[in-house]
C-alpha cells in the first residue's frame, strides 16, 4: 500500500529527500492485507489550483491506497529525497523496497505510463523528455504565449526574445540555453552520466554543448565534459585572437576541474589574463602546427612552463593538448587537459580518440557561440551609437556642450580613465563655412573618400612622430577639451606651444597630419623613457584617432588614455571608437557650421540693414517728387498701346508711374500715403541695375502696357481694385536687380541665386527684392491694408512676377487655351483669375514686339546687345559655345530668330487674347505688322545686309563683283537710295541690278556678307559710282559670279 494525502496528486522530484520508517502497529492492524506501505509527503507543483496547492494534511494523517490502483509514485534510485517545500524523514517499510517497486514497474510499464498521462504535470513531462525549463528568475510563458510565439515566428520574434533575454541576464549561468543543468548539482549529474554506456554518454555530452551560445558557459561545459570522458583532473581552453599575421592565444578558462563553478572560472580568467603567441609553449605550438601533443612527463618537455606549478603548488605530469578547428580548418582554439584521476600514468590512444572526436563538435559550437557573441556585441554597439547620435544631434548649438557630451559617452563606452579632444584651426571662419554651405553635393573626390588606416605602435617608431610632424605649422590646434575620472568635468583651454610639444601633443599632431589611427599598447616601452605622467595617473596605453567631417577632412583628434582594467585597447575598441568618431565628426562639424551660420545670419542682418538704407531713395529726391505736379495721363500717352518712353527723362518716368496710380484711384482707395508712394517709386527705380534692356525703363513700359490693358483694353472689369494694385506693383518690380543674364546662366555658373532657387531663379529673386523694399516702413505702400488684404495682394504680386518666366508661361498656356476654346467668360474663380493674370503679365512683358517699328527695331537692338554680352561671358567664364541668339558671331540670324519668337510666343498669346477681349486687338495688330518687317529684314540679311549694324534700313545695299575666282574684289554701287544730288543713276536701273542679284538663287557666304557689311560704312563718291557702273557685268556674267561664290 501507498499512503498519500487526501485529494492530492503527488509528484516526487529527484531532489526530494525522504526516509521511511515502520508504520505504527495500529496502522498495521487496520491493513486489510499484509501488504507493506510507504508514506509519502504531499508536495506542491505547478499546474494545480490554488485550493489544491494550499490543501496540506498533517504529517500524521494519511490514507491507504492499493498500489494496483495505478497510484504509482516515481521513487528515485537514491533513498534520500528532498521535498521542495519542507524536509521530513520517514523510515522505509520493512516489506516494500526499491527493488520491489522497480520490478513491478518493469513488469507493468503501462501502469507508470497511465499515471504519467493522467496525472503528471507539463513540467514533469518536459523534464522527462529532456526539455530545458525556464529558470526561477526568468519569466515563464503560458501555453497561450507559446502559441503566440509560433504565430510570430515570421517576425523573428524568437531571435528578438533570445536577444532580449540574453541582454537582460547578468551572469553567464543565467544565459545558458540548458539552465536545468546547472553546475551546482554536478555530482548528481556525474553519477547519472557514469551509468550511461560510452556511446550514450558521448551523445549526451555533445547534446549538452550543441545549442549553447554563451562562450563562457560553453567553454566550461567543454572542459567539464572532457574531464568526464577522459577522466582528466583539470583542463584549460585557449581561444585564438589577433590579426592573421599576429595570432595569439588567450586563456578563456584556465585550470578547470569538474568541481569548479562557472563564475569562479570566469573570474579567475579575467584576473589572470594569459596571452600566448602562436608557436610559444605547448599550447602555442599546437595552435601553430595543428598537431596533437600527448606528453607523459611535462617537466621533461622544454616547451612546458613550470612557473605556473611553482605559483600554484600543483604538479603537472600528463598533458594532452589538441587544436580546435572550424569548418575551414583554421585553428580557433586549443584545449588542454592535465593528469588523470583514475591513477593512470598516461592518456591512452582511446582518450586521444575520444578527445579528438568531441572537440570536432566543440569547434562547431565554439564558432557558433563566437558568431553569436559578435552579433550581440554588434547589437549593443548599434544601440550605443544610436543613443550617441541622438544625444549628439540634440546638442547642435553649443560646441563646448557637445564635446563634453562626446567625451562623457566615449569614457563610458570604452571604459577609459581619460579622454581628450583636440580641435584644429582649419580656416573654418564664416566665409569658409559659407562656401561649404553653398557647395553643391557630389564634388568630393574618390581620393577624399579613402578609409582611415590603422597603425599599431610596433609599426611606427617614436622618432617618426617627433622628427616629421613636430613642427608642422598647418596643424594648429585651437582648442583642447579634457576629461578624466577624478573631476568628471570638462576642461577647455587654448593650448600653448609647450603643451603641444609634449608627447601627447606630438601624437595628436601626427594623427591629424597623417589621418592614421594610432594604438599604443605600452607607452613606456614605446617612448623608451620614463612613463609620461598625466595628473596623478601614469599613462600606460593610448588610442588616438582622427575626427573627420563629411568630406573626410580631419577637423580634430580624439585621444583615449588608459583602460580602466589596466589592459591595452583592443581591436574591438578601435572598431567601436572608429564608428564613434564618425558621429563625433559629423556632430562637431555641424555645430561649427551652426555657429558660423549664426554669425553669418547676424552679418546678413547688418548687410540687409545697410542695403535697405542705400536702396531707399533719399529724402531730398522724395521731397522733390512729392512737391512737383504730376502731368495728365494724356500728356504721357499712357492710354495708348503705342506708348514710347524714349523722350521721357528719368524724373518723367517716375511722374508717369505715379499718374497711373492716380488714374486707378489706388492712392485713395487703399490710403497710401503720397510721400510713401513717391519714395517707393524712387526706391524701385534705384534698385534696377543699368543693364542694356532689363532696366527701369523696361519696367515702366511693362507697367504702362498693363495700365493700357486695364483701361483701354477694359480688362479692369474682370479685376478687383486690390488685384489692379498687385498687378501694377508686380509690373514695376518684375525685373528688380536684373543682372543682364537669364536663369540658364545662373544655373550654369552655379551662382548663389541658383542654389537659393532651383526653378524660376531670377523671378524668385525679383520678388524677394520687391518684398525687401516693401518691408521698409518708409516704402511700405501696403501699410494701411488689413492682414487679409495684405495676404491677398502679396499673393497676386508673387504669382504675377513668377509668371514672367517663359517656362511658367508654357506650362499655363495650354490650360488657358482650353478655357478659351470652351468659351469661358467667367474669370472670377481664384484659379482662373490667377491664370488670366499670368497671361496678361506675359503679354505686357513682351509688349515691345507690338510697338511701332521704329521703337521695336531699336528695342530689339538693345535686347540683342544684352544677350550678346551674356554669350561673351559664357565663352569667357564657362568656355562654352553660346546659343545662336546670344552668339555675337551669328548676329545676322537675329531677324529670323525674331520671326520665330513672334510665331511661337507672341502671336498665339495675342491672338487668343484679342479674340476673347477685342479691346486689346492693337497688341495683336502691332505684332503682325512688326513680323512683316522682321521677315523682310531676314530675307534681306540673306542677301548681305547686316541689319544690326544700322539703326535703320535706309542705307544702301551694295553689290560686289569680280571675275577672279581666287581673289574676289567687290565694288560698291548704290541701289534704290541714291543721294538727292546724284541724278545720274536711274532708280529703275538700280532696282534691276538688285533684283538680278537676288535671282541668282544662291545664298552669299558668311565671309562675303561680312565684307559687304564693312563696305556699307563708307559713302561712295560720284567717281566710285562711275567706276562701278563701268564694271557692272551682264546677266550671264552675274550668274557666273553667283556660281563662283
Automatic annotation (TrEMBL):
<dbReference type="GO" id="GO:0047555">
    <property type="term" value="F:3',5'-cyclic-GMP phosphodiesterase activity"/>
</dbReference>
<feature type="active site" description="Proton donor">
    <location>
        <position position="694"/>
    </location>
</feature>
<dbReference type="InterPro" id="IPR023088">
    <property type="entry name" value="PDEase"/>
</dbReference>
<dbReference type="InterPro" id="IPR003607">
    <property type="entry name" value="HD/PDEase_dom"/>
</dbReference>
<feature type="binding site">
    <location>
        <position position="735"/>
    </location>
    <ligand>
        <name>AMP</name>
    </ligand>
</feature>
<protein>
    <recommendedName>
        <fullName>Phosphodiesterase</fullName>
        <ecNumber>3.1.4.-</ecNumber>
    </recommendedName>
</protein>
<keyword id="KW-0140">cGMP</keyword>
<dbReference type="InterPro" id="IPR002073">
    <property type="entry name" value="PDEase_catalytic_dom"/>
</dbReference>
<dbReference type="InterPro" id="IPR029016">
    <property type="entry name" value="GAF-like_dom_sf"/>
</dbReference>
<feature type="binding site">
    <location>
        <position position="845"/>
    </location>
    <ligand>
        <name>Zn(2+) 1</name>
    </ligand>
</feature>
<feature type="binding site">
    <location>
        <position position="845"/>
    </location>
    <ligand>
        <name>AMP</name>
    </ligand>
</feature>
<dbReference type="GO" id="GO:0046068">
    <property type="term" value="P:cGMP metabolic process"/>
</dbReference>
<feature type="domain" description="PDEase">
    <location>
        <begin position="618"/>
        <end position="941"/>
    </location>
</feature>
<keyword id="KW-0479">Metal-binding</keyword>
<dbReference type="Pfam" id="PF00233">
    <property type="entry name" value="PDEase_I"/>
</dbReference>
<dbReference type="GO" id="GO:0007165">
    <property type="term" value="P:signal transduction"/>
</dbReference>
<dbReference type="InterPro" id="IPR036971">
    <property type="entry name" value="PDEase_catalytic_dom_sf"/>
</dbReference>
<dbReference type="InterPro" id="IPR003018">
    <property type="entry name" value="GAF"/>
</dbReference>
<dbReference type="GO" id="GO:0046872">
    <property type="term" value="F:metal ion binding"/>
</dbReference>
<feature type="binding site">
    <location>
        <position position="735"/>
    </location>
    <ligand>
        <name>Zn(2+) 1</name>
    </ligand>
</feature>
<keyword id="KW-0378">Hydrolase</keyword>
<feature type="binding site">
    <location>
        <position position="735"/>
    </location>
    <ligand>
        <name>Zn(2+) 2</name>
    </ligand>
</feature>
<feature type="binding site">
    <location>
        <position position="734"/>
    </location>
    <ligand>
        <name>Zn(2+) 1</name>
    </ligand>
</feature>
<feature type="region of interest" description="Disordered">
    <location>
        <begin position="133"/>
        <end position="152"/>
    </location>
</feature>
<feature type="binding site">
    <location>
        <position position="698"/>
    </location>
    <ligand>
        <name>Zn(2+) 1</name>
    </ligand>
</feature>
<keyword id="KW-0677">Repeat</keyword>
<comment type="similarity">
    <text>Belongs to the cyclic nucleotide phosphodiesterase family.</text>
</comment>
<dbReference type="Pfam" id="PF01590">
    <property type="entry name" value="GAF"/>
</dbReference>
<feature type="binding site">
    <location>
        <begin position="694"/>
        <end position="698"/>
    </location>
    <ligand>
        <name>AMP</name>
    </ligand>
</feature>
<dbReference type="InterPro" id="IPR023174">
    <property type="entry name" value="PDEase_CS"/>
</dbReference>
<feature type="binding site">
    <location>
        <position position="898"/>
    </location>
    <ligand>
        <name>AMP</name>
    </ligand>
</feature>
Amino acid at each position: 500500500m501507498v499512503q498519500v494525502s487526501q485529494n492530492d496528486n503527488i509528484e516526487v522530484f529527484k531532489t526530494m529527500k525522504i526516509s521511511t520508517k515502520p508504520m505504527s502497529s495500529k496502522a498495521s492492524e487496520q491493513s486489510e492485507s499484509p501488504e507493506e506501505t510507504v508514506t509519502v509527503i504531499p508536495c506542491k507543483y505547478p499546474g494545480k489550483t490554488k485550493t489544491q496547492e494550499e490543501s496540506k494534511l498533517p504529517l500524521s494523517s494519511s490514507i491507504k491506497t492499493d498500489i494496483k490502483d495505478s497510484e504509482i509514485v516515481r521513487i528515485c534510485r537514491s533513498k534520500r529525497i528532498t521535498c521542495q517545500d519542507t524536509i521530513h524523514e520517514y523510515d522505509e517499510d520493512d516489506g516494500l523496497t526499491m527493488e520491489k517497486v522497480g520490478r513491478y514497474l518493469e513488469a507493468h510499464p503501462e501502469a507508470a505510463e497511465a499515471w504519467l498521462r493522467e496525472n503528471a504535470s507539463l513540467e514533469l513531462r518536459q523534464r522527462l523528455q529532456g526539455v530545458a525549463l525556464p529558470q526561477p528568475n526568468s519569466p515563464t510563458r503560458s501555453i497561450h504565449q507559446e502559441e503566440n510565439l509560433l504565430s510570430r515566428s515570421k517576425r523573428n520574434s524568437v531571435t528578438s526574445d533570445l536577444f532580449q533575454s540574453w541582454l537582460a541576464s547578468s551572469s553567464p549561468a543565467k544565459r545558458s540555453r540548458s539552465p536545468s543543468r546547472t553546475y551546482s548539482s554536478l555530482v548528481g549529474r556525474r553519477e547519472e552520466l557514469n551509468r550511461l554506456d560510452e556511446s550514450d554518454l558521448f551523445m549526451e555530452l555533445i547534446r549538452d554543448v550543441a545549442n549553447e551560445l554563451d562562450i563562457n558557459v560553453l567553454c566550461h561545459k567543454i572542459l567539464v565534459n572532457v574531464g568526464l570522458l577522459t577522466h582528466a583532473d583539470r583542463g584549460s581552453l585557449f581561444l585564438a585572437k589577433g590579426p592573421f599575421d599576429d595570432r595569439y592565444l588567450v586563456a578563456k578558462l584556465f585550470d578547470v576541474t569538474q568541481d569548479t563553478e562557472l563564475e569562479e572560472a570566469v573570474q579567475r580568467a579575467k584576473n589572470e589574463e594569459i596571452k600566448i603567441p602562436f608557436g610559444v609553449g605547448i599550447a602555442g605550438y599546437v595552435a601553430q602546427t595543428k598537431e596533437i601533443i600527448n606528453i607523459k612527463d611535462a617537466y621533461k618537455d622544454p616547451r612546458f612552463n613550470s612557473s605556473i606549478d611553482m605559483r600554484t603548488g600543483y604538479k603537472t605530469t600528463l598533458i594532452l593538448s589538441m587544436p580546435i578547428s572550424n569548418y575551414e580548418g583554421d585553428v580557433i582554439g586549443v584545449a588542454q587537459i592535465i593528469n588523470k584521476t583514475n591513477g593512470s600514468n598516461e592518456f591512452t590512444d582511446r582518450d586521444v580518440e575520444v578527445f579528438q572526436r568531441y572537440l570536432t563538435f566543440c569547434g562547431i559550437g565554439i564558432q557558433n557561440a563566437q558568431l553569436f557573441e559578435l552579433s550581440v556585441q554588434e547589437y549593443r554597439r548599434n544601440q550605443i551609437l544610436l543613443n550617441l547620435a541622438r544625444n549628439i544631434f540634440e546638442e547642435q548649438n553649443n560646441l563646448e556642450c557637445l564635446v563634453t557630451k562626446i567625451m562623457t559617452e566615449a569614457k563610458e563606452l570604452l571604459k577609459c580613465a581619460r579622454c581628450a579632444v583636440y580641435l584644429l584651426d582649419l580656416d573654418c571662419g564664416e566665409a569658409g563655412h559659407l562656401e561649404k554651405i553653398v557647395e553643391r553635393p557630389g564634388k568630393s573626390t574618390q581620393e577624399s573618400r579613402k578609409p582611415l588606416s590603422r597603425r599599431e605602435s610596433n609599426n611606427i617608431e617614436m622618432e617618426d612622430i617627433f622628427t616629421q610632424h613636430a613642427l608642422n605649422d598647418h596643424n594648429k590646434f585651437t582648442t583642447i577639451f579634457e576629461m578624466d575620472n577624478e573631476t568628471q568635468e570638462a576642461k577647455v583651454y587654448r593650448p600653448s606651444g609647450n603643451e603641444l610639444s609634449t608627447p601627447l601633443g606630438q601624437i595628436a599632431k601626427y594623427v591629424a597630419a597623417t589621418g592614421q589611427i594610432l594604438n599604443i599598447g605600452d607607452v613606456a616601452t614605446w617612448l623608451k623613457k620614463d612613463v609620461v605622467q598625466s595628473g596623478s595617473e601614469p599613462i600606460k596605453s593610448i588610442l588616438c584617432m582622427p575626427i573627420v567631417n563629411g568630406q573626410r577632412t580631419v577637423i580634430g583628434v580624439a585621444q583615449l588614455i588608459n583602460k580602466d582594467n589596466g589592459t591595452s585597447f583592443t581591436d574591438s575598441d578601435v572598431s567601436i571608437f572608429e564608428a564613434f568618431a564618425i558621429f563625433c565628426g559629423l556632430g562637431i562639424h555641424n555645430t561649427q557650421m551652426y555657429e558660423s551660420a549664426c554669425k553669418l545670419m547676424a552679418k546678413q542682418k547688418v548687410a540687409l540693414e545697410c542695403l535697405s538704407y542705400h536702396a531707399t531713395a533719399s529724402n531730398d529726391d522724395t521731397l522733390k517728387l512729392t512737391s512737383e505736379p504730376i502731368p495728365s495721363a494724356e500728356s504721357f500717352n499712357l492710354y495708348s498701346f503705342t506708348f514710347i518712353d524714349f523722350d521721357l527723362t528719368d524724373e518723367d518716368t517716375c511722374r508717369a508711374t505715379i499718374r497711373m496710380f492716380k488714374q486707378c484711384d489706388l492712392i485713395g482707395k487703399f490710403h497710401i500715403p503720397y510721400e510713401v508712394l513717391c519714395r517707393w517709386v524712387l526706391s524701385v527705380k534705384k534698385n534696377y541695375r543699368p543693364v542694356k534692356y532689363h532696366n527701369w525703363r523696361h519696367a515702366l513700359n511693362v507697367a504702362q502696357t498693363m495700365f493700357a490693358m486695364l483701361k483701354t483694353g477694359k480688362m479692369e472689369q474682370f479685376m478687383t481694385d486690390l488685384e489692379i494694385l498687385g498687378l501694377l506693383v508686380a509690373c514695376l518690380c518684375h525685373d528688380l536687380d536684373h543682372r543682364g543674364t537669364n536663369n540658364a546662366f545662373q544655373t550654369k555658373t552655379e551662382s548663389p541665386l541658383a542654389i537659393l532657387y532651383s526653378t524660376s531663379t531670377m523671378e524668385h529673386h525679383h520678388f524677394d527684392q520687391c518684398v525687401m523694399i516693401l518691408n521698409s516702413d518708409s516704402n511700405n505702400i501696403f501699410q494701411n491694408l488689413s492682414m487679409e488684404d495684405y495676404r491677398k495682394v502679396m499673393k497676386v504680386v508673387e504669382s504675377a512676377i513668377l509668371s514672367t518666366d517663359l517656362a511658367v508661361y508654357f506650362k499655363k498656356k495650354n490650360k488657358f487655351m482650353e478655357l478659351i476654346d470652351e468659351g469661358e467668360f467667367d474669370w472670377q474663380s481664384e484659379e482662373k483669375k490667377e491664370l488670366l493674370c499670368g497671361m496678361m503679365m506675359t503679354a505686357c512683358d513682351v509688349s515691345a514686339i507690338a510697338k511701332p517699328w521704329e521703337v521695336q527695331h531699336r528695342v530689339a537692338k538693345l535686347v540683342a546687345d544684352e544677350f550678346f554680352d551674356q554669350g561673351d561671358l559664357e565663352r569667357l567664364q564657362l568656355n562654352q559655345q553660346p546659343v545662336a541668339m546670344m552668339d555675337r558671331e551669328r548676329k545676322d540670324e537675329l531677324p529670323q530668330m525674331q520671326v520665330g519668337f513672334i510665331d511661337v510666343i507672341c502671336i498665339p498669346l495675342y491672338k487668343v487674347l484679342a479674340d476673347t477681349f477685342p479691346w486689346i486687338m492693337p497688341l495683336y495688330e502691332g505684332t503682325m505688322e512688326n513680323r512683316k518687317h522682321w521677315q523682310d529684314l531676314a530675307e534681306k540679311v540673306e542677301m548681305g545686309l547686316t541689319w544690326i549694324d544700322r539703326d535703320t534700313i535706309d542705307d544702301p545695299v551694295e553689290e560686289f563683283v569680280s571675275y577672279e575666282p581666287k581673289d574676289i574684289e567687290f565694288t560698291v554701287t548704290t541701289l534704290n537710295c541714291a543721294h538727292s544730288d546724284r541724278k545720274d543713276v536711274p532708280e529703275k536701273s538700280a532696282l534691276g541690278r538688285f533684283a538680278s542679284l537676288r535671282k541668282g538663287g544662291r545664298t552669299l557666304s558668311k565671309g562675303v556678307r561680312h565684307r559687304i557689311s564693312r563696305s556699307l560704312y563708307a559713302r561712295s563718291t560720284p567717281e566710285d559710282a562711275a567706276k562701278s557702273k563701268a564694271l557692272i557685268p551682264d546677266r550671264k556674267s552675274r550668274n557666273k559670279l553667283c556660281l563662283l561664290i
